[in-house]
UniProtKB/TrEMBL annotation:
Top-level taxonomy: Bacteria, Bacillati, Bacillota, Bacilli, Bacillales
Entry's Gene Ontology cellular component terms: cytosol
Family membership: Belongs to the TACO1 family. YeeN subfamily.
Native species: Brevibacillus agri
Keyword RNA-binding: no
Gene Ontology BP, a term: regulation of DNA-templated transcription
GO molecular function: DNA binding
Location in the cell: Cytoplasm
This protein's UniProt keywords: Cytoplasm, DNA-binding, Transcription, Transcription regulation
Superkingdom, natural source: Bacteria
Signal peptide residues on this chain, from the entry's feature table: none
InterPro entries recorded: Integrase-like_N, TACO1_YebC-like_2nd/3rd_dom, TACO1_YebC_N, Transcrip_reg_TACO1-like, Transcrip_reg_TACO1-like_dom3, Transcrip_reg_TACO1_YeeN, YebC-like
Boundaries of every TACO1/YebC-like N-terminal domain copy: 3-74
UniProt-recorded name of the protein: Probable transcriptional regulatory protein BAG01nite_31620
Domain TACO1/YebC-like second and third intervals: 79-235
Length: 239
C-alpha cells in the first residue's frame, strides 16, 4: 500500500501546483453534486464527499458557495459523467474520469492526450478491473494504534491502517467513507491531509526512466484538460 500512498501524494502535489485550474474543476464538481441532490451536504452525501476533498485542497469558500448557489438558482448546465480507460507506455494502465457538457469534444481531447504521448484508449472494462474503488484518509498527529482504537470503538471495519512519512493512512471500502469520517469526527478529528474516494491499482508497475518521463507527460496532458476531473494509474512514481 505504501507506493500507492506515494502516488496519491504525488498526484495531489501536482494538482496543488495549478490552483486556478483545480478550483475550476472543483467548482464544476460541486455544482453537479449539488444539482443532483439537495444543495445541503448534510442531506447530500455526494456533495459532502466533494466538499471534504475540496477542503484538503484549500479551495476557497467563495468558490464553494458560488457553485452551490448556482445549483440552488436552477442553472441548467447539464454535465455527463464519463469514464475512459487506456494504456500508457509499456502497458501501464490509466483511468480518466470526466465531467462534460460536450461528450464528443471530451472523447476527442482525451484520445489525443493518449495518442500524442505514447498511449492509446481502450474499450470500457479493459483497465478498470485491475483497480479497486477505495476510500482513503490521511491524517497527522495520531499513531496507527490510536487510529485503530478510534475505529474499533466506532465499530468501523477498514482494509488497512499504515503509518508513513509522519502520517497515518486509512484504506477502507468506498461505502465506509462516511462511517470512517464520522468516527474521526466524534474523536475530534476534522482535518485530513487526504480524504478521497479513489481507484487504487491492484498491482503497480515500474517504468524505465525514459518511459516514466513519457508517462508523466501523458498524465499531465490528461489532467490539464478542462473536462477531466480525476486520473488514476498503476505506475509507481517513486519518491
Amino acid at each position: 500500500m505504501g507506493r500507492k500512498w506515494n502516488n496519491i501524494k504525488e498526484k495531489k502535489a501536482s494538482k496543488d501546483a495549478s490552483t486556478s485550474r483545480i478550483y475550476a474543476k472543483f467548482g464544476k464538481e460541486i455544482y453537479v453534486a449539488a444539482k443532483q441532490g439537495e444543495p445541503d451536504p448534510e442531506s447530500n452525501r455526494a456533495l459532502k464527499i466533494v466538499l471534504e476533498r475540496a477542503k484538503t485542497y484549500s479551495v476557497p469558500k467563495a468558490i464553494i458557495d458560488r457553485a452551490i448557489e448556482k445549483a440552488k438558482g436552477g442553472a441548467e448546465e447539464n454535465y455527463s459523467e464519463l469514464r475512459y480507460e487506456g494504456f500508457g507506455p509499456n502497458g501501464s494502465m490509466v483511468i480518466v474520469d470526466a465531467l462534460t457538457n460536450n461528450v464528443n469534444r471530451t472523447a476527442s481531447e482525451v484520445r489525443a492526450a493518449f495518442n500524442k504521448n505514447g498511449g492509446n484508449m481502450g474499450v470500457t472494462g479493459s483497465v478498470a478491473y485491475m483497480f479497486d474503488p477505495t476510500a482513503v484518509f490521511g491524517l497527522e498527529g495520531k499513531t496507527a494504534e490510536e487510529v485503530l482504537e478510534i475505529l474499533m470503538e466506532a465499530e468501523v471495519d477498514v482494509r488497512d491502517i499504515l503509518e508513513e512519512d509522519g502520517a497515518v493512512i486509512v484504506y477502507a471500502e468506498p461505502e465506509q467513507y462516511h462511517a470512517v469520517q464520522e468516527a474521526f469526527k466524534k474523536a475530534g478529528i476534522t482535518e485530513f491531509t487526504v480524504a478521497e474516494l479513489t481507484m487504487l491499482a491492484q498491482n503497480e508497475v515500474t517504468l524505465s526512466e525514459e518511459a516514466q518521463a513519457q508517462f508523466e507527460k501523458m498524465i499531465d496532458a490528461l489532467e490539464d484538460l478542462d473536462d477531466v476531473q480525476q486520473v488514476y494509474h498503476n505506475v509507481d512514481l517513486g519518491e
